[in-house]
Amino acid sequence: MNLFGVLNISESALVAERERAEVVTTNLANADTTRTPQGGPYRRMEVVFSTEQMSGAGAPGTIPSAADEAVRGVRVVNVVADPTPPIRRYEPGNPDANAQGYVSYPSINPAEEMADLMDAARAYQLNATAAQATKGMIQSSLDLLR
Q1: Residues with Cβ < 8 Å from 87, sequence gap 6 or more?
Q2: Mean of the per-residue pLDDT values for the chain?
Q3: Which position has the higher pLDDT, 55 or 12?
Q4: Among 2, 20, 116, 118, which residue has the fewest nearby CB atoms (within 10 Å)?
Q5: Based on C-alpha coordinates, what's the Rg of the chain?
Q6: Three-state DSSP class for 52?
Q7: pTM of the model
């Protein structure tokens, strides 16, 4: 595998982690949303990752090696609703209360969401650092060829 294949892997991870962070921030923003256009409270969303074969991992014009065949990146395959049922609170004065006076709130734990957000941000930073290191190696290689 060449260094450009490593950049492709880092790039795929950066895109996936950015999308994960966006989903987590949407969850945090809607932690108290009791009514959506679809009806009912907001549903917490989760990102589903998958590996993918990276195209162009080998050098152009060469036969891919076993290492090139094993090169995988990451991608978001789906964003799914968390199946956890909503939290019901007794608030009879709330306009979204049912006949018994209960309001359904999203099943979102802000502390858990913040931990997920910090994890996504840290993974993003690590992949950005890997991309920068790879760019430095490419630049050093080009300097050697001068």
Answers
A1: 104, 105, 106, 107
A2: 89
A3: 12
A4: 118
A5: 22
A6: strand
A7: 0.81
Which residues are within 8 A (CB) of 81 and not within 5 positions of it... i.e. 6 or more apart?
43, 44, 45, 46
State which H helix or E strand residue 41 sits in: none
Cβ atoms of residues 23 and 76 within 8 Å: no
- At 101-121, the pLDDT tens digits run 999 999 999 999 999 999 999
Distance, in Å, from the CA atom of 122 to the CA atom of 119, rounded to the nearest integer, reads: 5
pLDDT confidence tier of residue 141, bands split at 50, 70 and 90: confident
Q: For residues 138 and 132, give the distance between their C-alpha atoms in angstroms, rounded to a whole number.
A: 10
DSSP H stretches of helix in the chain: 3-29, 66-70, 110-145
- Residue 29, token pair as written in the block: 């923003």
Contact 13, 123 (CB under 8 A): yes
Please name every residue paired with 79 in a beta bridge, in sequence order, or none if there are none. 47
Give me the residue spans of the domains in the chain. Answer: 3-145
User: Residues with Cβ < 8 Å from 84, sequence gap 6 or more?
Assistant: 44, 107
Tokens of 47: 């990102």
